[in-house]
Amino acid sequence: MGRTNWDELPTTLRTRIEDALGAPVVRSESQASGWSPGSADRVVTADGRRAFVKALARSRNGDGIDLHRREARVVGALPAGVRSPRLVAAFDEVHHDDDWVALVLDDVDGHHPGADRDGRDTAAVLDALATLPRATGVLATLPRMTDELGDEFGAWDRMLATGLPGVVPSAVASAAERLADAARGAVALVDGDHLVHADCRADNLLVDREGRVWIVDWPWAGVGARWLDPLTYLLDVLVRGEDDDVDHHLRTHPVFAGVDAAAVDAVLAALAGLFLEKAAHPAPPNMPTIRAFQRREGVVAAEWVLRRWAPDGAGAEGDDAPRLGAPRGVPSTP
Fold first, then answer.
1. Tens of pLDDT along 79-123?
2. Domain ranges for the chain
């Protein structure tokens, strides 16, 4: 089942959105990236105003509609210094016994980073993530990453106790005990007092015409370590197979200053377990391909740790490991 598009939204909901924008929508363009079966449309009104509209019905994805509600609360509380599109309006209503939630945001004329696969956008993304502030006010009440990830970072221990699932390739399985040992210390390492996006990959980022990076899609925002988002973006760079030295960014970018190698390894090991455990589960409704993508994330994270541990920098990449360049996974998806 594909995305809902603008024309499929209830007529009364479209009318309310147009009222918020001040003119009728005359053109819409559905955006293909991301995982939600809801709408994701760039729209243009009769007077030339541009906006981004995302909407979802409970019948399409019950968990997703609650995430839309959560995102509306988060985006409405973001301080002006965070480079994120402004929330114009949010609607939560019932149409024909189905709940609908819609967010209307300023549109950013830009593209997702990494499209050229040459690493040219990586530094700009890290620079933007480094500006996320300490969480204060409403943002300070967001979930703490230690609570959000505490159970999920125990994935290796659970998988070892019950038997590693088939999604774990043999080269990674042979290092599972060591990965589990490293991951046990990861929860404390993601604690902190900064705003964290917590789902930081290319399709949640936009690079505008001036090369500035904008951060979008905030339903998983929380409070934690300043360097967590930058690390997960570097993992995304690897998953896309970009020609970039991610370890160079770890060594040189100021956002990682003071973070030691063991801390990076522990969090990467924990993320690998998180993704691989999720990848072994049945797919959620209307998201049939996500488990394969999560497996990719988990394998790449594990391979990165193993390369970092190897004396010669050559990690374990088994014959059954997926190839670089496969589509992305989602850290926070069930």
1. 988 999 999 999 998 888 789 999 999 999 999 999 999 999 999
2. 6-107, 111-309
What is the SS3 assignment for 198? coil
Distance CA 242, CA 166 (A): 27
Superfamily holding 111-309:
Aminoglycoside phosphotransferase (APH), C-terminal lobe (3.90.1200.10)
Tokens of 198: 């917590």
Report the alpha-carbon distance of residue 97 to residue 321 in Å, rounded.
45
Distance between CA 33 and CA 202 in Å, rounded? 10
Tell me whether residue 31 is exposed, middle or buried, using C-beta atoms within 10 angstroms of its C-beta: 0 to 12, 13 to 18, 19 or more. Answer: middle
Q: Do domains 6-107 and 111-309 have the same CATH topology?
A: no
Q: What is the DSSP track for 149-172?
A: HHTGGGHHHHHHHH---TTS-HHH
Token readout for 322 is 């997926």
| Pair 270, 145: CB distance under 8 Å | no
116/14 Cα distance (integer angstroms) = 36
For 132-150, the pLDDT digits (tens) are 999 999 999 999 999 999 9
Q: Which CATH architecture has domain 6-107?
A: 2-Layer Sandwich (3.30)
Residue 250 tokens, joined: 């770890």
Q: How far apart are CA 230 and CA 215, in angstroms?
A: 12
